[in-house]
Design a protein that fits this description.
Elements (H helix, E strand, L loop, with lengths): L3 H8 L3 E4 L11 H19 L6 E4 L12 H10 L1 H4 L7 E3 L4 H7 L8 H14 L3 E3 L3 H17 L4
Helix pairs in contact: 3-5, 6-7
Length: 158
């Protein structure tokens, strides 16, 4: 929201910029679409004077529903392509906990029963480049992320 950027800058606050279907145009791939949306948000933030070190980006997992691709396929493509989003030079925040794409893949309609799939998605996101993970089941997710980070470090990933 361009109107929010000057308020964030004036307050000296940090901000998480999330890609959203509402701003999407064109028919690019999921990763290309998210990349372009986040670049646009970063331009707005920069023009408003928000320091780069106060900005985190989020590809909006679960927020793209009408893009000509099943939403769970969209989300999987974005997660698999997180390495490309690292080119933005900002930390990547991922929210996959209990999301509908986990339910669609796992065949689990009840969000409260999606812990195993959520942990797998969080670990995969970290292996693909995520820096921050939002989660409902914090203790369990911390353990999964620690294992994924150890594996990422072992293969030479930052």
């Amino acid at each position: 929201d361009p109107a929010l950027a000057p308020l964030v800058a004036k307050a000296g606050a940090g901000v998480i910029l999330m890609a959203s279907e509402a701003g999407a145009v064109g028919t690019g791939s999921p990763v290309e679409t998210v990349l372009e949306l986040l670049k646009g948000s970063l331009r707005i933030a920069s023009q408003a004077g928000i320091p780069e070190d106060r900005i985190v980006v989020d590809p909006g997992i679960g927020f793209f529903r009408r893009r000509g691709l099943a939403s769970h396929e969209w989300d999987c493509e974005v997660l698999a392509g997180l390495e490309r989003l690292r080119d933005l030079g900002r930390p990547l925040c991922i929210g996959v906990s209990r999301k509908s794409f986990v339910g669609a893949i796992a065949g689990e309609g009840d969000p409260a029963r999606r812990l195993p799939g959520s942990l797998a998605a969080a670990a995969a996101a970290v292996l693909c480049g995520a820096h921050l993970v939002r989660a409902h089941d914090v203790g369990e997710t911390v353990q999964a992320v620690r294992v994924a980070e150890a594996i990422r470090r072992s293969r030479g990933g930052a």
